[in-house]
Amino acid sequence: MSVENPSVASSKGIVIIGAGLAGWHVIDAIRAKDKDIPITLVTADNGDRYHKPMLTMAISQKKSAADLVRATGIDAAEAANVKLLANTQVTDVDTTTQQLQLVSAQRSDPANTDYATISYGKLVLAMGAHPIFPKSLPEDLVWHVNHIERFGQLQEKLATGSQHVAIVGAGMVGTEIAEDLLKAGHQVTLIDLNDAPLSQMLPPKATARIAQAVKSQGINFLGGYQVSGITRISDSSNEGKLQVSYEAIASENTTAEPIEPIIVDHVVASTGLTVDDKLPAAAGVEFNRRTGIVVDAPTLRTSTANIYAIGDCMSIDGVPCRYVAPLRAQAATIADDVLGLEHNGYEHKPPMIRLKNKAISVMVTGVPKATGNWQVKTESDEELVMDLLNDSDDVSATLTIKLPPTVKA
């Protein structure tokens, strides 16, 4: 496997943008091979190290945001011999001079803001993805749990007692959060455009079982509906509550049918992720807003020299890479490549997908999709096993669902 000139990295150092799991994994991988090469970590937050998948389980476990932090950004940076530029935004990338323009978020007055320019030998984009907020979900009225800071704020609100929470979006994250909130003693309404949870990745025979399990727990699942608006109620009897208007999905032969709104204390958006295009555009890397930054799979290099991407912000073969399991192998590849070490190249293998809900066990290997030639291998009240066959009749994904005895299909 060819590598780029390591002298470029050593002369100007390595700059990593983003202090999530992906960014810190790259730092760990580089430091395992080189203790001294200069590394600068630029992050819009404080850089604390935490395990993001825990956010969908932490409320019922009564774990605060502070409980989830494994190391503060300052402590982690010191331990790894890294220069940490926390609460800092990258506003521009000059790929000719290999410089980044920065602005500190610590000061609100632009006239007194600290601007700086730093150079990079190698640049790693690990800035993640951010939640999609449709127009019907105003950001100032809706929560998300894609980041520990927002999670902590929501948890503080929920700590005052049992409340009614509406979750918009029944993908994996939305379905996991729904169970977590229910176990914490809250009333939960889960709303999705599709008739069942996980419908964008699994076939109807499978998702019907998931819907049944979700409903059996006491979660109010509204499938086939879309939220049309959210407003804050100002009358004294419902002070601080939100009115969620929703309607049945229109089909070719019907129109959207409004239904009596529901009144809730909070709304959580779980409507997917997107990658901000500002940095990819500035860096001139090949990019798709839906799937992320395009990389060369064996090296994780982008289309621009000396720039790499990893984690939620990148895609391989048109598929976004938004799972935790492959990060260590990806980070190890980047570390070898930026340090000029020979390596065999990253071999992307889709990770096992596992729904973290206790009411139903859902495990998927391969690359699932809702449509396609799904074949049943095993079917009983307690278990469903299906294979997705490709055009050559080879298995491209396998799904295993197991239900507790009390939940029947």
Plain-language structure description:
With 409 residues, the chain is of the alpha/beta class. Strand 11 (164-168), helix 6 and strand 12 form a beta-alpha-beta unit. Helix 2 packs across helix 9 (327-338). It has three domains: 6-129 and 275-338, FAD/NAD(P)-binding domain; 132-269, FAD/NAD(P)-binding domain (3-Layer(bba) Sandwich); 353-402, Enolase-like, domain 1 (2-Layer Sandwich). It is globular, with a radius of gyration of 23 Å. It is built from nine helices and 29 strands. Strands 5-2-1-9-22 form a five-stranded parallel β-sheet. It has a five-stranded antiparallel β-sheet with strand order 25-26-29-28-27. The model has no long low-confidence stretch (mean pLDDT 91). Helices cover 21% and strands 31% of the residues.
Average the pLDDT over all residues and give the rounded result: 91
Strands of the biggest beta sheet: in what spatial order? 5-2-1-9-22
Strand content: 25-35%
Helix content: 10-25%
List the helices and strands and how they pair.
Layout: H1 6-12, E1 14-17, H2 21-33, E2 39-42, E3 49-50, H3 65-68, E4 69-71, H4 73-79, E5 83-85, E6 88-94, E7 99-104, E8 115-119, E9 122-125, E10 130-131, H5 148-158, E11 164-168, H6 172-183, E12 187-192, H7 204-216, E13 220-223, E14 225-232, E15 242-248, E16 257-258, E17 262-264, E18 266-269, E19 273-274, H8 278-283, E20 287-288, E21 292-294, E22 307-309, E23 314-316, E24 319-320, H9 327-338, E25 353-355, E26 361-366, E27 373-379, E28 383-389, E29 395-402
Parallel strand pairs: 1-2, 1-9, 2-5, 9-22, 11-12, 11-18, 12-13, 21-23
Antiparallel strand pairs: 3-4, 6-7, 7-8, 10-19, 14-15, 15-16, 15-17, 20-21, 23-24, 25-26, 26-29, 27-28, 28-29
